[in-house]
Specification:
By secondary structure, the chain is α/β, with parallel strands linked by helices. It has 10 helices and 5 strands. Strands 2-1-3-4-5 form a 5-stranded parallel sheet, sandwiched between helices.
Length: 267
């Protein structure tokens, strides 16, 4: 029997402000009223040691302790976590089979991909809190298109589909992204200036996930390139890619502003 959504206690582990907002708004829309956010693995472990939750929605790529290591720490019987068997559902922009296996090897139970879709997220939560299917059966992931598949600056139709036509919610999420982007690009510029390839990779990954959540394929592709360059420690190329990322944001801005004017926030 499905457990009622109200009263299901969820912990969302996510460092990016836009993706936090997306997760909170989507969960609220679905009827989950007890949701807490932890911005990194350390805060997640502290929350799980202090309070009981029914499920963890875990971003895999976190600063410091990543989602894989955080999950391994949760499963350790000698850790301070209250429930070592709590269901953990991975939420990641990666869609490769190797990433999926890595999630399960770290002790996660299920797997959904970003951008988060209402039906897939609800199914994942219900599966592990209400027994929709046999526990331990791997959750089918929702595939995402390759980052190079679409060069559109802003895909309005995809975004409307992601938020299931909730225009007020769409505007809130988009405003969060627009407000947070200057901070993210400043972090990228500082990381390139400092020669910190790891930070370039992490910030670019965060922007990639956020851009996917608001259906900005061109920005998603540009940030994906930056992520790869950070991984390869190619900071010379990263400087040029950062300019491309900023330019793609400016190309998308008129369509974003028009969309937000057409769809006022719900009161």
């Amino acid at each position: 029997m499905r457990k009622a959504r109200r009263g299901v206690r969820l912990l969302v582990v996510e460092d990016d402000a836009t993706n936090q907002e997306v997760a909170l708004r989507v969960l609220e829309h679905l009827g989950y009223d007890t949701v807490e956010v932890a911005a990194d693995g350390k805060k997640a472990l502290e929350a799980l040691a202090a309070r009981d939750f029914d499920l963890v929605l875990m971003d895999c790529h976190l600063p410091g302790m990543d989602g894989y290591e955080t999950s391994r720490q949760i499963r350790k019987r000698d850790s301070a976590v209250r429930n070592h068997d709590i269901p953990i559902v991975a939420a990641t922009a990666a869609a490769m089979e190797g990433d999926r296996r890595k999630c399960f090897a770290a002790g996660m139970n299920g797997y959904v991909t970003k951008p988060l879709r209402f039906d897939a997220l609800d199914r994942a939560i219900q599966e592990w809190t209400g027994g929709l299917q046999t526990a331990g059966e791997p959750l089918a992931s929702v595939t995402v298109a390759a980052v190079t598949a679409d060069r559109t600056a802003f895909d309005r139709n995809e975004f409307d589909e992601l938020v299931m036509g909730n225009k007020g919610l769409a505007r809130q999420i988009m405003r969060q992204f627009v407000d947070d982007f200057p901070r993210q690009i400043a972090l990228l510029a500082q990381a390139v200036s400092d020669g910190d390839a790891q930070q370039v990779r992490m910030v670019a990954h965060s922007i990639k996930g956020a851009a996917a959540s608001v259906s900005l394929p061109e920005m998603r592709e540009a940030s994906w390139k930056l992520e790869q360059q950070g991984r390869d420690e190619n900071l010379t190329a990263a400087g040029a890619a950062m300019a491309e990322l900023s330019a793609s944001f400016e190309r998308a801005r008129p369509a974003i502003e028009s969309y937000c004017r057409e769809n006022p926030e719900e009161r």
